[in-house]
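Researcher: Last one for today. Full complex below.
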Amino acid sequence: MKFGAVAVAAMLLVIACGSNNPNTGNTAQQPPTANIKPPDKIGPGEGQLNLIAWEGYVDDSWTKQFTQQTGCVVNAKYAGSSDEMTSLMKDGGGGQYDMVSASGDADLRLIYGGDVKPMSEKLIPDWTNFQTYFKAPPYNTINGIHYGISLQWGPNTLLYNTTKFKIPPTSWSAVYDPSNKGIVTAYDYPITIADAALYLSKSQPTLGIKDPYELTKKQFDASVALLTQQRQLIKKYWGLASDEISMFQNGDAYIGAAWPYQTNQLKAAGAPVADTIPSEGATGWGDTWMLATKAPHPNCAYLWTAYVSTAHVQAEQALFFGETPVNTKACAEMDALQAGSCAQYHADAPGSYFDTIKFWKTPVATCADGSQTCIPYDQWVSAWTAIKG
Amino acid sequence: MTSGSPRGPRSRDDASIAIQAAGRPRSKKGGAAGLQAFFWRLPWLRPLLLLTPPLAWFVVVYFASLVVLLITAFWTTNPFTTQVVQYWNTDNFLRIVNEPTYHTIVGRTVFMAAAVTVTDAVLAFPFAYFMARVASRRVQTLLFAAVLLPLWASYLARVYAWILIFNHSGVLNWSLQLIGLPPANIGYTNIAMWIVFSYIWLPFMIIPTYAALERVPESLIEAAADLGARRWRTVRDVVLPLALPGVAAGSIFTFSLTLGDYITPILVGGAGSSLIGNVVYDNVGIANNIPFAAAMAMIPVGIMAIYLLVAQRLGAFEAL
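Model: Here's the assembly. Have a good evening.
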């Protein structure tokens, strides 16, 4: 009886706090922070900087020098997924965090959630040296307003075992081919649906897929059906890069989507692997340093962004993590640190190269033509649960 | 159950006598005596003060969080920013009821929990019987240490050890090859998951079973022998029924632990190995859809409520 009474009281309390105001989120509107003017110049540093980052993005080898130069002590909180980053950044970073190194699949959620605010590219001297695509990529720039400064990028490549595949695969069809049953792996993440959509955009042109992140119901269902068939071929979906590495090492998987990081690790361990960007192109990720709406140390944040955009730090981070810098001047620095690495990571790629890579962005209901017929991200998530079974 | 009513009032009398004894006025210090007198005049105050902190903890932290979980399950999220919207609806539950994927996952989870429980019961009973009734004191201690030793190592380390056994070039396939058999290739399958779960939760079944078996009076076994029952007959008709509450108590652990686990499926499961826990984890970690995760989390709560009712009928709570 007593517990019952407490439960009812607690329930009433919560109901009283509740409201009947469903907000469906309309992307046709301006992001809530669009009118916040970025500063004209960087003031003196506040002495502290709190970052949410991917592991390996705030390494001592370049952070120490930053602290010596600016007096800003860097405190990093490492997040394991884009969604963990999104939830840590709730309420504009909560007055605790200054910046987040978000990937494209989290960016629009942060921007339209009002958790990040516009940044001024004029305060980042190296911005003019960026690859044209990364000056204003669609995942962090809306209506000409930059909600962050691009950092690094990488493609999702097709990784394969060279003893099993003597003839290198040239198409993503290899991971959907029933003759490879039981040796395929795929990334355990809803955004993998875009990989299937990218393949279908070439193999089934009648579907009319133009952007693998803007799918109509019909296109989405076709992509999900392809992945549902693929499940029979999958040995295991990988969630951590280390899972995929050990599967390729132990002979549990011979082919599957991967990041250049896995290829580098496996090659370093002497495994017979290679990777390729198949003829259909590839999906990819682009990371951005974004400024929290309630950042307590904005000057240190700008100083940090300017610092990590310089050619030398860009090259250092690229080689440390196995990704590609956005600063074109970093190419020479990369070759100086590790001969041939600039070409290996496509840091010298011409603008046309970026047409073959479809960068992750949050799928939203608003299609490119302004209609509300595209499938939003929450449906991607539930479809992914159904695909995995 | 039956002894509940006479015991309650008598123990309260005992308590008040104890309080009266403790509260007898002494003339050393006025303050302490005054306080004791105060407690003597209000006999309910002392148990209240003693019980309030743990009870408050239980109500606020444990019970309230369950209630909040239940309430959250009736909310929704903004599909785009994934922020929780306090809009009352039953869509989350309808989605679970209507989508066959979730039926498969719930069915798989319950089946896995049941399979693990039965496996552990079958493995644990002879082991616990030997420990309780056959082994010498010294061997008993050694076996106890052997059962509890794995619990000292990290859960993750033990699961990873099984991955090394099961994977394509692992110990299992290597051993099979050595004796000329074809490779088993059960790495990253539901069978691997079943074996790992059965291994990990086995101590939780052995110990309650052992406790129940040890409590079986020697006189009953002698009586059975006097009445002409052979050894197996005695085990079947005397020992087994008396040990059943212990097995039921152990099954509460193995069943509920499997029902809520999500780490083993991630690590040793393959394609098509998601359990309820994985759906909850994915909806919190990836989708940020807390209300749907809450609705999904209510399913094991419901299943366990039914399970505990059945276990209580079998006398599991007397054996704990």
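The longest helix of chain B spans residues 100-134. Confidence is low (pLDDT under 50) at residues 1-28 of chain B.
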